[in-house]
Every structure is written in structure tokens, then in C-alpha cells.
Write a structure and sequence with these properties.
about 425 residues, FAS1 domain, Immunoglobulin-like, 3 domains, 7-stranded mixed beta sheet, 5-stranded antiparallel beta sheet, 24 strands, globular
Length: about 425
């Protein structure tokens, strides 16, 4: 007998998509920022960015602003070894910071709590923020930006005040391309005043000369997942070396070994030179944990291509549960509905992801993914419960044309699958 969706899970879906606070009366997001003393630095930043950004925050389509405090800006300037005034004069960086802290849609604290473990797209092209919780239940973005005050309601969205400025590789690369010597530091000039040789390091116990400890490089297994629907086959380069050839759309590669730590990733059309890169990212972080999956997502035409490490976005799977990660890469559909036991659990915009967990106990839920074209919901594709095992995370992507999509189904952590 087929199980019905658990009441608690159904409630979770309702909270994600239905329950939001009432709109503010005549107060825009820009008004809120300008009216709060602890956001005065951010208010100054908004005076320096493009007028269309300010216009959206003053009454455009609904967005959620993650608003760093004055202290947050001072702290990030210190961490970057920059005077705060210098950071606040870098208009290119300020624009990217504001875009990275602006999330499309009106996403309340309740909705965020229901989506812990997911990533949210931002208005900075190809950039996402992750939703996490601290041990005390506090919401945090990217593991650093704790929510101090949530659900400050405006006519055009919501404001969540956070205690850190979120950075990503686009912002840090912009900073790196505008180098400056921090105040108070000088470059040492070579000198010939002393010809005394620097003593060799010696062992404290034997007095013998010792050599520096050799750096241990840890290798990890990584595979790549091609989910950029408007690109054909690609070649994948890591640190300038071709490691994968002719990876087609919808395919996941075999595992390859790379060094842990920051790696330079690049993709080209198959056979093309790295000089003609379609997407590149310097210092992409690859951890020391077990096998990892890096997805190539987004759209070349829409300039939204990005690398996303799927595995690390989620904590361990609860015992005797199944985690399902859904992704919409359908061409020609404005959205994809994720249906669980005939209840719409999520509506995914293009290239959006969502995830949720279900008890495995004789997994027999009816799960369908249905393309939405105009106002019509088309026939979808179903997931076979026999294909899943407990304590594992599965990737389910709907790809291809809306009239005849394909279902991609992969286990993200093979070690977890029973």
C-alpha cells in the first residue's frame, strides 16, 4: 500500500511557499536601510551603486536583502587588510557586494528554516548563498553571516540583518585585480650589509642539521556533472591540465584525482584552447572529504554559468532517511513543479535547486517532476522508489525540452548508499 506524505512534511512545504508576513505599508527596502543606524554604512554603499539597483530596492520586484551591519563592514575590511574607506571607494566591488546580498523573491525566516542545506541564487550572476544553522538554531549564510534580525517587512520584500559581509570568488577576484599595498607595510629591499649566512635549522636534541618538513599533498576524488543545457560537449581543465575530454550535457564523468585545496577550474568546448574558456574559476575550494561531485550549471546564453560542489552543500543524511536534491534545467519551461503524493512541494525556477528529506521506511512516495509552460503544467516524469536506498543523497535533474524532458538520477555519495 502506498504511503501518504507525512503531515509534518506537508506542513514544511506549506511554510516554504505560502506563509510570509504581511507587506509593509509604504516602506521600501531602501527606506528601511536608510532609517536604521546600524545599517548606515550599507546606506552609504547604496548611494554609490548604480541607480537601477537603488530603484529596485526602492520599489521594484520583490527581493530579500541580506543587510550587513556597520560592524560587519568594518570587520571585513580588516580581514581583507584594507582601510574601510578604501573598500567603500571601490565601486565595482560595492556593486557586486550589493548584488550578492540580494536574493530574488520574498523569503521569510520560516521559509529559510525550511530550506536549510540548500543554496539560493543571488542577483550576482552565477553566484549562490548557502543556508545553514548554528548549534543554537541561529540562521547563517555561507557559514559566516548570522541573522541578527529577521523578517523586517517592506513593500517590495524583506530585510534580514546579518553580522558579516558575504564574499565569493567574483568579489575576491575583483579585489585581487585592483592590488594595493596595505597602509603601514613596505616591501623589503635586498641588502648587502650583512654577509653572515643564515644558520641552518638544527634538531634541539641532537644538534644535527635538519631539512624542512616536506609538504604533504592530499589527493581527493572528484567527478564533474554537465548540467548547462545550452552547451554541447566540453573539456575540463584543472590547474591548466586537461583531465576530462568530451563530457556531454547530462553526463557525469568518472572520478579523477586532484589535489585538495584551491584549484583553478576551466571548461572549453571540446577540442578548444583554454584561451577560449567558456567558464573559469580560480581557487575553487576542494575539501579533503571523500569523493566529491562538481556540477556545471546555468546557461551560457544567459551568462549564468557556474561551478557548484553539490556534496558539500548538505550535512550528513539523517539515519534511515533519503535526501533528494532536485534541479531544473528544462529548456522552454518557466518552472518545474516537484510533486510529492500529488502535493506541489516546490516550484523551481530555471537552474534552481531544492532539497528535502523523507523517511526511508519502505520508501513508496509518488514523486513527479512536471514542466510548467505558460499557465500549463505538462505531464512529468516519476521517480521509482525501488531505485533509492537509505542514508544517501540523490540528485534528480529534469533536463531537455519541455515537451520531452529527460530525468537524470544519480547518487551523490556512493559511499552512503546501501
Amino acid at each position: 500500500m502506498r504511503k501518504t506524505l507525512l503531515p509534518g512534511l506537508l506542513l514544511l512545504g506549506m511554510l516554504m511557499w505560502s506563509l510570509t508576513p504581511a507587506y509593509g505599508q509604504g516602506t521600501s527596502i531602501l527606506d528601511i536601510v536608510q532609517g536604521r543606524e546600524e545599517l548606515s554604512t550599507l546606506a552609504g554603499v547604496l548611494e554609490l551603486v548604480d541607480g537601477d539597483i537603488r530603484a529596485q530596492l526602492d520599489g521594484g520586484s520583490p527581493v530579500t536583502l541580506l543587510a550587513p551591519t556597520n560592524v560587519a563592514f568594518a570587520n571585513v575590511a580588516s580581514a581583507l587588510d584594507l582601510p574601510l574607506d578604501d573598500l567603500l571607494q571601490n565601486r565595482d566591488v560595492l556593486i557586486q557586494i550589493v548584488q550578492y546580498h540580494t536574493v530574488p523573491g520574498r523569503i521569510s525566516q520560516i521559509a529559510l528554516e525550511a530550506r536549510v542545506g540548500e543554496v539560493l541564487p543571488t542577483q550576482l550572476v552565477g553566484a549562490f548563498v548557502s543556508i545553514e544553522t548554528r548549534d543554537n538554531g541561529t540562521l547563517a549564510f555561507n557559514g559566516v553571516g548570522d541573522v541578527l534580525s529577521a523578517d523586517i517587512s517592506a513593500t517590495n520584500g524583506l530585510v534580514h540583518i546579518i553580522d558579516d559581509v558575504l564574499l565569493n570568488r567574483v568579489i575576491t577576484e575583483t579585489l585581487a585585480n585592483q592590488p594595493a599595498i596595505p597602509a603601514g607595510t613596505e616591501t623589503a629591499e635586498p641588502t648587502t650589509e650583512s654577509t653572515e649566512a643564515t644558520p641552518e635549522p638544527t634538531s634541539e636534541t641532537t644538534g644535527e642539521v635538519v631539512t624542512p618538513t616536506e609538504v604533504v599533498v592530499q589527493m581527493v576524488q572528484v567527478r564533474f556533472f554537465h548540467l548547462a543545457s545550452d552547451m554541447l560537449a566540453v573539456d575540463v581543465f584543472v590547474n591548466g591540465n586537461l583531465i576530462l575530454n568530451d563530457l556531454n550535457y547530462g553526463e557525469t564523468s568518472f572520478y579523477v584525482e586532484v589535489t585538495s585545496g584551491p584549484n583553478d577550474l576551466l571548461i572549453t568546448a571540446t577540442g578548444a584552447s583554454p584561451d577560449d574558456a567558456l567558464l573559469q574559476q580560480a581557487r575553487f575550494p576542494i575539501g579533503t572529504e571523500g569523493p566529491q561531485t562538481i556540477a556545471i550549471i546555468g546557461s551560457l546564453e544567459a551568462s549564468s554559468l557556474s561551478f557548484v560542489k553539490l556534496d558539500s552543500a548538505f550535512p550528513g543524511v539523517p539515519q534511515d532517511h533519503v535526501r533528494l536534491l532536485f534541479y531544473n534545467a528544462v529548456v522552454g519551461a518557466r518552472a518545474v513543479d516537484v510533486m510529492v503524493d500529488d502535493v506541489r512541494f516546490a516550484r523551481l525556477e530555471p537552474y534552481q535547486t531544492t532539497a528535502f528529506e523523507l523517511p526511508y521506511d519502505d520508501f513508496d512516495y509518488e514523486i513527479e517532476l512536471k514542466p510548467v509552460v505558460g499557465n500549463d503544467v505538462l505531464n512529468g516524469l516519476s521517480i521509482n522508489g525501488d531505485d533509492v536506498s537509505p542514508n544517501a543523497t540523490y540528485f534528480i535533474g529534469l533536463v531537455g525540452p519541455a515537451e520531452g524532458p529527460q530525468l537524470l538520477f544519480y547518487v551523490l555519495s556512493a559511499a552512503d548508499a546501501v
